[in-house]
Design brief:
CATH superfamily: Calycin beta-barrel core domain
Number of domains: 1
Bound molecules: 1,3-dihydroxypropan-2-yl (9Z,12Z)-octadeca-9,12-dienoate
Shape: globular
CATH topology: Lipocalin
Order of helices and strands: EHHEEEEEEEE
CATH class: Mainly Beta
Structural class: mainly beta
Number of helices: 2
Distance between the termini: 56 Å
Number of strands: 9
Radius of gyration: 16 Å
Oligomer: single chain
Helix content: 10-25%
Amino acid sequence: MPANLCGTWDIISNVNLEGYMVALGISPQLRKIALKLKLKKVIEQQGDEYIIKTTSTFRNYTVSFRMGQEFEEFTRGLDNRNVKSLVTWEGNKMVCEQIGEKKNRGWAHWIEDDKLHLSCFMLDLCNNTFLK
Ligand code: VL7
């Protein structure tokens, strides 16, 4: 395994969760709640299966997968979308592509200076529609 991310991790910083949630179309009310949460990550490995639990006092979210095997993910309690997800190692980064309605969606985890980093990304390309 390129990196051992397993363990229980407490969030210590959070940059632009608001922008990420806006891009996902999360309601202002839910965004307000989410911004106040102190998230925890529990990352476990059982054989070749990984389980990532994101927990808080408000909601929990769990995803499990095998490296390199595409799976159906429903982001229940987050933006409630169906995506086809694929997690692979890119060097020491655990990278997930989430193919669905939102373009270039995914996340990456890696360890740096004994800290677990998570980057969640998405890009809504500019869409123009014109009428004559
Ligand atoms: C998952 C928050 C905000 C909607 C509810 C409040 C949040 C928390 O993709 C993620 O993790 C990956 C990698 O570790 C594994 O699933 C981040 C949480 C980020 C997204 C969206 C606000 C609704 C509840 C469970």
